[in-house]
Amino acid sequence: MSDLPVVPRRRSWAEPWKVKVVEPVRMTTREHREAAMREAGWNTFLLRSEDVYIDLLTDSGTGAMSDSQWAGMMLGDEAYAGSRNFYNLWEAMTAHYGFKYLVPTHQGRGAENILSKALIKPGDFVPGNMYFTTTRLHQELAGGTFVDVIVPEAHDPRSELPFKGNIDLGALEAVIERVGAERIPYVCLHATVNMAGGQPVSLENARAVRELTARCGIPVYMDATRAVENAYFIQQREPGQGHKRVAEILLEFCALTDGCTMSGKKDPLVNIGGWLAMNDEKVYEEASNLVVVYEGLHTYGGMAGRDMEAMARGIGESVQDDHIRARIGQVEYLGAKLMEWGVPIVRPVGGHAVYLDARAIYPHIPQDQFPAQMLAAQLYLDSGLRAMERGIVSAGRDAATGDHHYPKLELVRLTIPRRVYTQAHMDVTAESVAAVYAERDGTPGLRMVHEPKYLRFFQARFEPLD
Ligand code: F0G
Questions:
Q1: The domain containing residue 376 runs over which residues?
Q2: How far is residue 373's CA from residue 393's CA, in Å, rounded to a whole number?
Q3: In terms of domains, do 137 and 272 share one?
């Protein structure tokens, strides 16, 4: 027997990039963080970023751009009308998402506002696979009512269904029968589903939704914010799809819809920007008219020329298989560590984040004492790690009754920015979560002391209960 060490026979993947510029982050003391948390009203949105060590609040606009994107910024054509960067963005969108028309907006919710205003009439219903905060609000402000038609497994953090973002076809059919196709301006298909834990929709489900809605003449508009991540899950999990490239699957998926809203701050790898895209010329007419009222001219929609160039280039980078494997691989790495240590998280691990199950971690805190809000605060106090509540605070109030929505999922989201943090940052994160989990007994709940009218989770303030 040789006593030479055994060399493991395996091949790991690594990020398909190397670091060229670094940005210092600050480490703080517990005492400093306690003062900062009090100042922020126990809401991680109200912390100053300078007081944060590892920032997993969101993957929105927090990614690192490539050298090619930064170089593209210098090629910004800042003409008010007809900037060449707009045409580059349009080309990139059509090449990778396949839609005919592009209406640029300052970010995703700008596109949601315009789509809602263009298509929804008061009294309409918009079925969708789970609500998203800004999407539902714009539907409601336009006079519509959102109806959740996601599969029931999406509400169960422990269900291992590979496509927990799917639409429940029976539920969708029932809504169409109940309210009538003429009162459904479109079906809103999120891919992936953020509030369910970044869970994907299968190609098979999108196809079935297309067939069902086409029979009744109802269009399908997608929230394509993380559709590249969705396409990667299809490649990895859906039978018969493994041989295709992510870019190919993305086009196939989009072809089952009539258009999309997009927050460029996620998949497309930029810090700001968004768009609305569609195939229907009449909808394009209406949307490019509305965009000049709310966003800017229809060839910039609130973005600078340089922003549009960075996004055009980012789109091309975002659909590369190596990129998306490393991006989701990092999220899975963090999730696997936490599962190994027995921390309750939403399973399977989603595309952009690991979601902690606050209901399981703090079973002694009633939902209206905001367990997930408290868990996010405790993570910050422990290590300077910033996460986001995705539970009752995010769900807001029922527009009709004024009572809290009580979502089944009471979660804290550890959201991984794209191309920003290293594996060591993931280790530090996992260790902090484990430390807070170990101290879970006896942690008190919170009471809300300030509640804004719209999207309250951004600016609400809290105090701990004794
Ligand atoms: N749709 C989804 C699925 C989103 O996740 C977001 C934003 C939007 C639409 C709105 O886009 O922010 O560009 O106006 N999500 C961020 C998050 C804020 O942290 O999940 P936006």
A1: 30-59+321-464
A2: 8
A3: yes
- Per annotation, catalytic residue among 26, 67, 80, 158: 80
Mutation test of ligand 1: which of 133, 134, 150 has the most ligand atoms closer than 8 Å to its C-beta? 134
Q: Is 266 a catalytic residue?
A: yes
Is residue 371, in this structure, part of any structural domain at all?
Answer: yes
Q: Which of 33, 109, 327, 390 is catalytic?
A: 390
Q: Quick check: bond before 348 cis, omega within 30? A: yes
Instruction: Identify whether 400 is part of a domain.
Output: yes
| Atom 5 of ligand 1: nearest residue by CA position | 194
What's the CA-to-centroid distance between 303 and ligand 1, angstroms? 17
What residues pair up with 300 in beta bridges, in sequence order?
none
Statement to judge: residues 279 and 169 lie in one domain: yes
**pTM, full prediction:** 0.96
The DSSP annotation for 347-414 comes to SS--SSEEEEEHHHH-TTS-GGG-HHHHHHHHHHHHHSEE-EEESHHHH-B-TTT-SBP--S--EEEE
> CA torsion angle for 2, 6, 10, 13 (degrees, to 10)?
-140
Last residue in a domain, options 276, 294, 318:
318
Residues 75, 188, single domain; the answer is: yes
CATH number at residue 51: 3.90.1150.10
Is position 223 within any domain? yes
pLDDT (tens, 9 = 90+) of the chain, 466 residues, equals: 568 888 888 888 899 999 999 999 999 999 999 999 999 999 999 999 999 999 999 999 999 999 999 999 999 999 999 999 999 999 999 999 999 999 999 999 999 999 999 999 999 999 999 999 999 999 999 999 999 999 999 999 999 999 999 999 999 999 999 999 999 999 999 999 999 999 999 999 999 999 999 999 999 999 999 999 999 999 999 999 999 999 999 999 999 999 999 999 999 999 999 999 999 999 999 999 999 999 999 999 999 999 999 999 999 999 999 999 999 999 999 999 999 999 999 999 999 999 999 999 999 999 999 999 999 999 999 999 999 999 999 999 998 899 999 999 999 999 999 999 999 999 999 999 999 999 999 999 999 999 999 999 999 999 999 7
d(CA 110, CA 276): 9
Q: Which of 299, 318, 337 is the last residue of a domain?
A: 318
Q: Whose CA is nearest to atom 16 of ligand 1?
A: 60
Ligand 1: centre distance to CA 163 (Å): 20
Check whether residue 381 and residue 291 sit in a common domain.
no
Based on the residue annotation, tell me whether 133 is a catalytic residue of this protein: yes
Catalytic residue among 44, 58, 133, 192: 133
